[in-house]
Amino acid sequence: MTYLSNDPASFAEDALAGFCELHADTVRRVPGGAVRRTRPGQPKVAVLPGGGSGHYPAFYGIIGPGLADGAVSGNLFTSPSAQDACSVAMAADSGAGVVFGYGNYAGDVMNFGLATEQLRAKGIRAENVVVTDDIASAPPDRVADRRGIAGDFTVFKVMGAAAEEGMDLDEVVRVGRKANDATRTIGTAFAGCTFPGADAPLFTVPDGHMGLGLGIHGEPGLRDVPRPGARELAEDFVARLLAEKPAGARDRVAVLLNGLGSVKHEELFVLWADVSRLLRESGHTLVLPEVGEIVTSLDMAGVSLTVTWLDDELERLWTAPAWTPAFRRGSITTADAGATVEDVAVAGAPRFAEASAASKKLAASVLDGLRAVRTALREAESELGAIDAVAGDGDHGRGMVRGIDAAVAAAEAAWRAGAGAGDVLAAAGDEWAARAGGTSGVLWGAGLRAAGEAIGTQAGTIDARAAVDAFAGRITALGGAQPGDKTLVDALVPFQQRLRTGTWAQAARAAEEAARATAGLVPRKGRARPLAERSVGTPDPGAVSLALVARTVSEHLEEGT
């Protein structure tokens, strides 16, 4: 468990603040994460790993010469927002472009993708390298569906060295993807991890067993198997990785034996003795292997083994010097010396369209509705988290609460500034997306903004059907989910369809029925997909939370009549 925190909801931000204070000579905090204290005097590609917090030293612990130029840091196990990614990128860019590196999770793909589009619109070259090293999360014929776990580090190290050498953006991206294609990881969990402030872990493992194929966001393993001794575990890990050796790969390998948070170094050394022997007996040469905590998962008890097959180029980049707070190799002369620190400009207060008196009055009702939703989501936070933990990372309740809290604060500020109903809802959506992060954060944020745009700032009443159509259209276009994928869309579409012929209350009941029915579905999207069978019998948390919001709004409307 996590013993030290102030407000559990701000744990990730507080940890980042402490890290940046401790290492103030080398890093500085910016909105959305951290960057190197100085930028190079000459343009170089900025390598920016990112993802949710809870994985230290990934991601901000590896900021420094030879590795990352900055890191985008989301809430615990939650992807950072597109706004966060843009903020860090603009602080780190020195004129040669930026490349985001992250694991293959829906929220990360969506938010970093949006950030890339926004940066390009501002004239900043931006690219993405998505890591897919987890062999347990999808079979070899579906490599693109695999998660990114501890192999992140190898890919980031290669890209950081390439950028330090002076490679241009296209070349840095090329070697990053090359490293990803050559990287395989397998992991296991002995016990689950616990969020700050929580009184129980996200998942449990039966006594004497381990969860094979863990994820780094608190997801349980793909299946529970009897826990072997260190030698048997090493044999299993090595055999699984060697079975996936890329065609034509050489026999020189970079190897990471990674502790997930609670496995002590001495235990890792015991396991390493067998892992290294088995790899050498298979004819492989180990090149600067690493053993320790590299990509963690809060206090999870677990280990993972990563192998990257090296060619001459990848070996040169893997062995190149690096100097960061959490990872140091060799000695390095950095171009950062003498460069100036540039602060990120802070955007001014938002400006809203001129609103009619009727729309300003309607804005108060919209704000009251958001407050009612906030109360409902806070009360349901634990329940939503428990549903999500069955096959996901257990953060859905906390993410929804974080989102609605930010949305209400933004809506209140907009209302006080005299905004109309549409702008109040749009402002709420923007802040939901910026503060909640993750897949649900960007979807809810984009959906609320679309609904606000449909409402506008002149009318004194809301065309509910038009607003919901805009909300649903933006979400389905952005997320790409269809009915039957076991996502919030499975509740959203029935709600939208019933509203076209009935009342909001009738539509809300249709959403609740549809949400309950998702228990029988097999997920085809999101973090639950790798654990599809485990999910059967449990409703989708996104569908459940959407139905809850619909019912809460219905009750708010009834009270107002």
From TrEMBL:
Gene Ontology MF annotations: glycerone kinase activity
Keyword Transferase: yes
Major enzyme class: transferase
Keywords, sorted A to Z: ATP-binding, Kinase, Nucleotide-binding, Transferase
Residue ranges annotated for the DhaL domain, each copy included: 364-555
Domain DhaK: 7-327
UniProt-listed Enzyme Commission number(s): 2.7.1.29
PANTHER family tied to this protein: TRIOKINASE/FMN CYCLASE, TRIOKINASE_FMN CYCLASE
Entry protein name: Dihydroxyacetone kinase
Native species: Amycolatopsis thermophila
Lineage: Bacteria, Bacillati, Actinomycetota, Actinomycetes, Pseudonocardiales
